[in-house]
Amino acid sequence: MRVLVAGGGTAGHIEPAMNLADELRRRDAKSHIVALGTERGLEVSLVPKRGYDIALVSAVPLPRKVNGELFRLPSRLRKAIKETRAVIEDNDIDVVVGFGGYVSIPAYFAARGRVPIVVHEANAKAGIANRIGARFASAIAECVTGSLPNAVLTGNPLRHSIATLNRSALRDQAREHFGISHDRTVVLVFGGSLGAQTLNRAVAQLLTDNVIGDVTIIHSYGAKNQPAGSPSENYVPVPFIDRMDLAYAAADFVICRSGAMTVAEISAVGLPACYVPLAHGNGEQALNVQSVVAAGGAIVIDDSRFDAAAIRQYVLPLLTNTEVLNHMSAQARTVGKPDAAKLLADLVESVVGGTK
Fold first, then answer.
1. Are both 76 and 42 inside the same structural domain?
2. What is the pTM of this model?
3. What's the mean per-residue pLDDT of the chain?
4. How many Å is the Cα radius of gyration of the chain?
5. Both 48 and 94 in a single domain?
6. Are 345 and 299 contained in the same domain?
7. Is 107 found in the same domain as 88?
8. pLDDT tens, position by position, 100-152
9. Interval 235-248 mean pLDDT
C-alpha cells in the first residue's frame, strides 16, 4: 500500500498517525508511507525521527475572527490543495488517512474524488477538519462513540511498546530505571512534554506539606519548568520521560491531563488515574474521560479545583486501598483498546481493497 497520513500540528495528531504507519509497516515492510505536514508543525521533527518521509505544503490556519487572514483563506487553501494533489500523484497514493489538524483540510479536499479517504477522530468532540473530511470519507474511525456519524469504534492507535506492555513483568526493571525501591507506592505525575503548571504547583505544595508518607512521585515537570523539589525517596523529578512504557510499569497510579492519546494509553495499560482536564478548545479533554470515569477506572478533578488539598482528599486515600486500585485498574482496561492500531489498519486495508 501507498499511504498518505495527514495529522500535523500537534503531537495529538502526529502520534496516532505514526503509530498507524508502524502497524502498516509491520504488516508489510514494503508499505510506502508519507506524512503530510507544514513547516510550522511539530511533524517537521517528529516524523523523521520515526523513520518516515514528510511532504511539506503551505500552512492554512483557520482564523477565529474576521480579519485579513480570513480574506486570504480561500487563496491559501487552493494553493495547499494543489500542493497536496501533487504529493498524491507523485507518490501514487492509494489512500489518504487524516487525523485532524489544519493540514488535514487540504488533504481531504485534494483526495476527494481521486483516492479514498479514511478519517480518524481521537477526541470525543470532533474538530472542524475531521467534520469536513467525514462528509466525503470512505470510512470513519473514532475513539469515543458518537464523535462523528457512521464511525467505526477503533480506539486511538498506540505505540507497540505501550499496546503490548505487561506492567507487572516490567515493574522491577522500571523501578530500577527510576531508582525507586520496589516496595514503594508510586504515583506518576505528568502534563505532556511542556509540563502543566497546575499539576506542578500541586506537587510542590504536597512536598512542602510533607504528608505523602511512603509514596514516591515520579514527576515529569516539563523542560522549561523547574522541579517541584529536590530529588529524594519521595520525589523523582525528570524534565521529560522518553520511556513511557517504563513510567507506566513503575507506577501504581497516575495524575495527568486528559488528552486523547494520554487517556488511550493509560486505559490500555490498566492504570488507575486522576485526570485533570485542561479547559481549552472545544472542551474535549473533559469529554475524553467520561467513559473511563463512568466505568470506574478513574476520577476527574476540574483544573480550577486541583491543588495539594485535592490530592490529599481524593487521591492519597485511594493509594492505601489495594482492592480499590485493582478494581480501578480492571475497569480502566474495559475502556482501553490496546489493539486500536490493528483495527485502524484493518479498516484502511479494507478501504483500499474495496477500490482495487
1. yes
2. 0.92
3. 93
4. 21
5. yes
6. no
7. yes
8. 988 999 999 999 999 999 999 999 889 899 999 999 999 999 999 999 999 99
9. 95
Mean pLDDT of 288-292: 95
SS3 of the chain: CEEEEECCCCHHHHHHHHHHHHHHHHHCCCCEEEEEECCCCCHHHHHHHCCCEEEECCCCCCCCCCCHHHHHHHHHHHHHHHHHHHHHHHCCCCEEEECCCCCHHHHHHHHCCCCCEEEEECCCCCCHHHHHHHHHCCEEEECCCCCCCCCEECCCCCCHHHHCCCHHHHHHHHHHHHCCCCCCEEEEEECCCCCCHHHHHHHHHHHHHCCCCCEEEEEECCCCCCCCCCCCCCEEEECCCCCHHHHHHHCCEEEECCCHHHHHHHHHHCCCEEECCCCCCCCHHHHHCHHHHHHCCEEECCHHHCCHHHHHHHHHHHHCCHHHHHHHHHHHHHHCCCCHHHHHHHHHHHHHHHCC
Q: Which domain holds residue 188?
A: 165-335
